[in-house]
C-alpha cells in the first residue's frame, strides 16, 4: 500500500488551529480572564486560518509553509503563558551603553 506524502500546507494549518484551540482551552480550564483584545486575536486568527489557510497576507512576515507569522506565534506563546500562570511577557534585555575610554587629546 503506497502512502502519499503529507501536504505541508494542510499540516501547518491543522497545527495552527490545534495550537489556537489548545490555548483557548488552557485559559478556560485555568479560569484566566483573557482581555478583549486577546480573545478577538484568537478568534480572528482562527477564522483567517480556516478561510485562507494562513493568517497573514504578506509573505515576508512568515515562512512559506507556516500558517502563522512570526509575531503571531510570539503573541500566541504569550497568551499560552498567561493561561498557564507564567510570566506573560517575553523576556527582553535592554541595550547596554558601551563605555568608551577617554581619549587624551
Question: Any overview of this molecule?
Answer:
This protein has 105 residues and is mostly helical. It has one domain (8-84). Helices cover 51% and strands 0% of the residues. It contains 3 helices and no strands. It starts with 7 loop residues before the first helix and ends in a 21-residue tail after the last helix. The mean pLDDT is 83.
List the helices and strands and how they pair.
Elements: H1 8-29, H2 36-52, H3 70-84
Helix pairs in contact: 1-2, 1-3
Question: In short, what is this structure?
Answer:
With 105 residues, this protein is an all-alpha fold. Helix content is 51%, strand content 0%.
- Whole-number tally of structural domains: 1
Average pLDDT for all residues = 83
End-to-end distance: 82 Å
Q: What share of the residues does DSSP label as strand, in percent?
A: under 5%
Total number of beta strands: 0
Structural class: mainly alpha
Low-pLDDT parts are none
SSE pattern, N- to C-terminal: HHH
How many helical stretches?
A: 3
Biggest sheet layout: none
Helix content: 40-55%
Radius of gyration, in Å, reads 20 Å
Q: Rough shape?
A: extended
